[in-house]
Please model this.
Amino acid sequence: MSGCVECVRWREREERARRRGDHSGAVDCRVLLRRHRAVCSVGRAVAERRRGER
Ligand SMILES: [Zn+2]
Model:
């Protein structure tokens, strides 16, 4: 969907940590995903598309 392997990877990691009950680990994944998104052209394009749809 997103088209970016790294974005998907962080999301999966976060979900895994959540299921384990590892809150700190989930937060770490969130932060890293945000950082990656800042430099992820694919994620940016998707976000801009969503904004433009409105
Ligand atoms: Zn990405």
